[in-house]
Structure formats: C-alpha cells, structure tokens
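Protein 1 of 2
SEQ + STRUCT:
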Amino acid sequence: MARSSTTKPSAIVDGLVFTAGALMALLIFLGLYSFLSPDPVPNRLSSISLPFSSPRSNHTHEPSDQTFYDDPSLTYTIDKPISNWDEKRSAWLKLHPTFSAKTERVLMVSGSQPKPCPSYDGDHLLLRSLKNKVDYCRLHGIELFYNTALLNPLMPTFWAKIPVIRAAMMAHPEVDWVWWVDSDAIFTDMDFFPPLDRYKDHNMVVHGWPKLVYEEKSWVALNAGVFLIRNCQWSLDFMDEWASMGPPSPNYEKWGKILTSTFKDKVFTDSDDQSALVYLILTGKGGWRDKIYLENEYYFEGYWLEIVGRLENIAVRYNEMEKRGPAVLRRRHAEGVFVSYAKQRDAQLGREKGAISGPKGWRRPFLTHFTGCQPCNGKRNEQYSGDNCTEGMYKALNFADDQVLRAYGFRHASMLSGDVQPLPFDHPRART
C-alpha cells in the first residue's frame, strides 16, 4: 500500500474536506488540485539535509558508441511503450561517466499553454512564476525544463503533463527524478529541498493522506499538480496505465463513470488525472501503490487560501529569529553558497518554538499552490475574487523574491509592491 508518515491530518483539514461536500469538490476541480494542508510536525524537519549546489560539469564529449537514441523503433510519444528502460539508461550512463553524481539528480518540469494568456495579467503572472522556479533551481543546482508545447493534442489541460514527463525522461537519462510542478505553484521557501533519502524505496511522491484515500475515498485525498517521479521502467509503465484512463482511451467515458461512482465527492463526470491517481492507489490496480509515497509532513504543496494571509507574520517571525540568532544568519554572502546559509537557518529553526510546518506553525510553506485562480485564462473559481487571487499570487511571489534578492542587497518595499529598497548591513538587526 502507499506509504506515508503516520501523522494524521489536522482537525482543520478534516473539517474542510468532510463538511464542504460537493461544492468544495467542484471548487477544487476548477483549480484541478486539492486544498488539503499538511499537519503540524515536530522540528525534526530541521534535520533534513539540503544538497549543496555544484557547478555544471563539462559534457562536451559524445561517444560514437550506439545507444537507445540510435534505435529507430523507439519513440518519444506516450502511445508506444518503452521496454528495458533501466538497462538502456544504465548503458547510456556508462558511456557518459561525467554525469555521475554523489547525490541523485533532479530535473524540474513545468509548463503552460502554447498561446498567449487571454487574461490581462496572465502572461506576467506566468513569467513571475517561471522566474520563481528558475531562481529555485539555480539556488539548488538543478535543471529546469519549461514546456509550452502540447505534445499530445488528445491529452490537454491536466492530462498534458504525462506526455511531457515521458519525453523528459528520455531526453534526460542522466536524471534520477523528474519533478513536475504546476505553473500556478510558487516556491515560498527557497531554502528547503525535498528529503530524497526518505523516498529511496519509492518511485513516486505525491502530497496526500492515506486516511482520505482508504477510509473516506475522496478524490481530493491527494494532489496531482506537484509530484516527484523516478526515472525508471516502473514510472514509464505506471504512466502508460495512468494515461489509459485519459482522453485518448476508448474507455475514457467508462472511466469517468467509474471514478464518479467511486468518489462520492466528485461532482463532474469526466475522468481526470487526480481521480485516476487516487483510484489506482485505492484499488491497488496494477500493484502501483506500494511504490507511491503519500507525503504530508510538510507543504509539498499547500492550498494558497490558508497560506497567503499568514505570509506577513511568517516574514516577521523569521526577522525576529535572525535578530536574536547568531551573526551568521545575518552575514552577507555570495549567492553561490546560498545552500550553506540555508542550512544554518534550518538549524536555527530547529531551536525555535513554533517553527513547524502547517497552519499552526510559522515555518515558511515550501510550495504555495494557487488552485482555482487560473491566472492565464482568467476563469477563476466563482468563490474567489480576482483581487483575492491576483494579490495572493503577488504576495507569494514577492515573499519568495525577497529571499532571492537578499543576496543582491535588496528587498521589496512591501509584499504588494514592485519597488525595492536596499538592505542595510547586518539586516535585520540594523535600523532601517
């Protein structure tokens, strides 16, 4: 079965999920993803080690030996399965030893629609969101592939990511993990990095709760908008199975009926990627769930509406911690050693009261997911006002950007301001 921490969802989360009913399920569907919050957990998160960034190796030499790339029968499209991928990938890596690494390599993948956004500020918000991901990847020494092409016209909207991830695995045999992050998900803790060692026995990591999968049978028991998936044969086979429940399948309408009857809080009849994923875990169909880790000990992605209102207070608490903490927390440094200082902050958080993840703590949320806001097409859920979504996104983006700009000696004048101001020496202890 899918493994996870034994931590139970908070009462706040249970209330949101079980009392909102069909209306909230529809609300979340329009945003495509779940709204559940991670549980408050002890400060043991501070013990998670962060990978040190390393300069990109020189990969200019390409051996003449033939590899899977020279096989004319192999295709990048999702409709034709790949076999023996682990062996193919291993053989390629032996021919390219410069790609060897002491830590597991990660490729982040995200994307947006091929055409310009119809909403007034949609393209700008997507640009800011892309910058946020570029910043995060640069700080942690990982690669980013941002896609704007629909690789399979029969798999639009939320299904579009599966063909992209499949192609990314083939284009990057050197990476161990592909990390899908929706375009409307914003990194709001630039220090944190997922604890990959925790997932060594699993091939997929998704934000979710076993209780909501197995007992409540809720289609919002997990979130399919952000996940890690290992670059291996298991993952290719799993994505084939997952995609078989999507629009290209002759059984697409049948799957819609099955999913709707299985999940009583699902009020639309189409088969969607998130319901399909919950179904595969719930039923054990194909035996996939043993390798899927349901992460709920931190904000692997978090519902924006319960986060953005707390960002100002979180920023204040971090400033207070750095004021009274050791001088190393305030020391100026080059961006290239960012992770070293992130580890210092993480260690200090472990000594702070209340510095835990979740709605009851003041630790920075790792990823803030703006489900239902639809920044590109502007068709926001009716429960949200345009100002609510837009202001929330700018708050999250500037909150994260301040963490980046610090190495450059600046910060935003406020969380809703595009203006910046210089940081004084010994900030935040110094008077401004």
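Protein 2 of 2
SEQ + STRUCT:
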Amino acid sequence: MRLFLLPVSTRRTLIYCERVQEQVSGSKPPLQERIINKASTTWAGWEKAEKGWQKKLTVYGNQVFKRIPFEEWGLKTIPPATKKRLEDVDNGKLKVECYFPGAFLKESKVLGLLQRLATERQALHRKRMWQCIVWAPVTIPFALVPVIPNIPFFYLVFRAWSHYKALYGGKLLEHLTAHNHIKTVASAKMDEMYAVGLISPTREATREATVPTRDEIGQIARIVETQTEGGKEDAMLLQKWNGKLLAEGFNLPEMEIEIERAVEQAEKDIKSEHELKEEKQELQGASGKVADVKVQETKK
C-alpha cells in the first residue's frame, strides 16, 4: 500500500492513499464498493442533464463537496482500520510505504506529520458521524414528497459514511505510525514535479520544462522558505496543474481531483488570511490617525 504525503502549502498537507484492490479474482466487488460505484454513476448521469432537479441538485451538491475540507477527503482514501486489516499490518502481510518530496518536506518531520493528520480530526469526525446518524431518521417523512428523492436523508447518510471513512482511515494511519509500520521514501520524482510546477506558469509549460537538477530544486525550495518569512506566512507549494502531472507520474488518476481540491481550498484560505491582515492593518492605521487628531485637539 502506498501513501503519498503531499504538502499543498508550507502549513497544510494532503495525505493520499493508493486505492487498495482487495477483490478476489472472479468474485463480485464488496457491497460498499458496488453502492459507491452505483451512486457515482447516477451522480454523473445527473450532471449531464441539461435541466431539471437532477441538474440543480448536482450543481448545489458539487458546491457542498468543495466545502468539505480536503483533509477529510484525504483520510477517506485510507482503508478503514478493520480488525483483519490491523492484523495484516501487524503480521507484515500489508506493507506500507509513504512517498514525500524530500526537498520540500524534511524527513524528520514526516512521521510526526502523519501522526498529526491521523489524530487531529478524529474527535470531530466521531461527533459529526453520530450527529448525522441521529438526525437521518428525522428526515424520513421527506420521502413522501413525490418524484424528488429524500435528499436530506441521503445527504445525512453520505456525511455519516464520509465521517466514518475519515475517522477509521485516520485510526489505521494512527496505528501504522504508532507501531512504526510505515517506510518513508523521499521521492526524487515528486521533488522534480514540485519544483517544475512552482516555476512554470501553466500545465503546458510544466510539461515542456526541462527536469531541474538537484541544485536547482534546492534553490527553489529555499526561495519558498524565504516567502514564509521564517514560518510567519503560508506559501503555496502546489499548483492546480500539478494534480494531473502527479497523478500521471504515479499512474493514479484518482489523485488528480484530490490535489486540485486541496490547492483550491488552500489558495482560498491564504487569500482570506492576507485580506484579513490587510484589513487589520488599515484599521490600525485609521485608529492611529484618530489618536493623532485627538492629541492635536487636546493641545489646542
């Protein structure tokens, strides 16, 4: 099983797990996977509708999905911590490697970061999961509405399942880190993709760019570090177009949307933080001017 630790910015990191195929040859996929595939197919069909409630639902639904923190989406890619899976890990049947860009993330920080990602949201996911489970039966009367499905019920079921996946994905990651079952791998390929993405303005330019040398990668990493002003500021490390390139580089097409979502959220948060800081500075400047005026009036 491969984990990918993807620093989105200097403060926020996406964890992504390569999808584990557990289906036995010739057998049907697990029930959970069949339900998910059916839901995905149905949703994709509704997205293609030109109008109607299906189209409106997917538009609003996709907006809701964008607001779900990318940290939750990342934990959901990790298989749940079932009893059998934990035994397989402890018995050495399930090997786990974690790839990360060593030039942009120090190896000494990797295990600590994995531990934090595994545990920091567990209480939240547990609380929200049970809230959704409790409220789901309350929405059953909405099923009496003709034609339109019971949207509130399905939403709460989806969110309960989502929080469950994130919670128990985090528990597996916590177990892996606590028992030292993860082999960390500094990926030169990831270093190259990160560096090229940072110096290229578009995806096309990234594809055409020459592979940077180790010295050039190190120089780019140092430039990013200076942008943080000693850790005071958050600086982006990934661009949206990096998602497709990283996904292609590791032959993981599902990774693309996770990276793009994470980049979009991180960029939005950094922008909001800068705007808030500028607004605060303007208020402080205005307060200073008011204070000066009062002093002058007092002197008069």
